[in-house]
């Protein structure tokens, strides 16, 4: 059993129906899948790898050595407590790219390359949302319309650039703790040599295998709500490693903070089924998520709700 790998180019031919079914099954059974032949230029992906790795070396590596995670791990090792682990910290260097925040200056090609990449990923995200809508029996554009607060706001699109440097004691600290993602649809361009990403299915952890030039798709909490639980956001984590500096570039297509999220109305006008989730404002959910990211998502859903 393995995380599905789906050839997106097959949507264009006689295998369209089978490919749509593959995507639907992956969303229902895994909440994760990998895309090949996704139409993002491979030379662009090569440039993204290059500028992100160079950016870490030039602007981030030295700072990580003084980070809280490094300090806490060093303290733990020095303490001599053989069985203790760090359960509330991540062995991760991270920064966020948005249209309106400050981006790294180095290398010189970073801004131009990542701007181009984000445009391509946003197009792919909206294409995938249309596919999810078709599989769920929703009208075309339903999810984007919901995420935009019925056109009043822009959906949020952010890119998280992470590195997981070599860890001297990966048995004592994780790369990124178990969690589901708060938002809508996540598109990950992960390292094709250094693994570590795992997804939980039926109580067992499975590796999301590093495959060159693939885009990993995973379902966020808001798609779970809109689908009324048909598609599930899956718990996932990143293991720390003693070898290699794992690169991870995750782009998030999320609702605007003002958007109201609830189980969807189908094209015919009726509810999919009895609503199993509350109706809430996404910004309220994010306030809860900021405090409960590493707790059960069911608790988060129970904490929000409007009439």
Describe this structure in words.
This protein is α+β, with helices and mostly antiparallel strands and 307 residues long. It has a single domain, classed as Jelly Rolls (Sandwich), CATH 2.60.120.330. It is 35% helix and 22% strand. The chain is built from 8 helices and 15 strands. The strands form 4 sheets. Strands 1-2-11-8-13-5-4 form a 7-stranded mixed sheet. It has a 4-stranded antiparallel sheet with strand order 7-12-9-10, with no helix packed on it. The longest helix has 27 residues. The chain is globular and about 60 Å long. It starts with a strand and ends with a helix.
Keywords:
seven-stranded mixed β-sheet; alpha+beta; four-stranded antiparallel β-sheet; Jelly Rolls
List the helices and strands in order: EHEHHEEHHEEEEEEEHEEEEHH
CATH topology type? Jelly Rolls
Strand order of the largest sheet: 1-2-11-8-13-5-4
pLDDT under 50 segments (min length 5)? none
For this structure, the quaternary state is single chain
Proportion of strand residues: 15-25%
| Number of β-strand runs | 15
What is the count of distinct domains?
1
**What is the assigned CATH homologous superfamily?**
B-lactam Antibiotic, Isopenicillin N Synthase, Chain
The 3D shape can be described as: globular
CATH class: Mainly Beta
Distance between the termini: 42 Å
The overall pLDDT average reads 94
Computed Rg: 20 Å
The amount of helix comes to 25-40%
Structure classification: alpha+beta
CATH architecture: Sandwich
Summarize the main sheet: 7 strands, mixed
Total helical segments: 8
